[in-house]
């Protein structure tokens, strides 16, 4: 009698594969952090994170922004004070709940975020052109597969959007 074959369990990732992802994490964070340098001190990294969240959320209660950043309300208030003074955001109130403070990007804030995101796009394009079309396609496919396995909820559980 022939015993049925049981498919082998997939092998786990090798140390080399894990190291490749560790390096890619550092490389992508490096691109994000270098984009802050182009601002030449106009805003700090925490302030940029707040601006990026507002860019994604639009006009929002400060409590929602605090949750998205994983910060307390007082920390967001201090960041918002500086960004309001520099003309990057406006404050408002919710017409239905007058005690709720809302935050929204100004034109100046939108332009700053656009400048950062455009620089990142150009930098990634510059880096990716150094790969062959086949390598780019394989890398993009691998990143899409990685994201599909990880899912949106993975970073959302960190307090909402992970702005960087």
Quickly describe the structure:
The protein has 164 residues and is mainly alpha-helical. The chain has a domain at 43-129: Arc Repressor Mutant, subunit A, CATH 1.10.10.10. 62% of the residues lie in helices and 10% in strands.
Structure description:
It is a single chain. By secondary structure, the protein is mainly alpha-helical. It has a domain at 43-129: Arc Repressor Mutant, subunit A. 62% of the residues lie in helices and 10% in strands. The chain contains seven helices and three strands; from the N terminus they run ααβααββααα. The protein has helices at 15-37, 45-57, 62-69, 73-85, 107-128, 133-150, 152-156, and strands at residues 60-61, 89-94, 97-105. The chain has a three-stranded antiparallel β-sheet. Helix 1 (15-37) crosses helix 5 (107-128) and helix 3 (62-69) packs across helix 4. The longest helix is centred in the first third of the chain and has 23 residues, at 15-37. The chain is extended, with a radius of gyration of 21 Å. The mean pLDDT is 89.
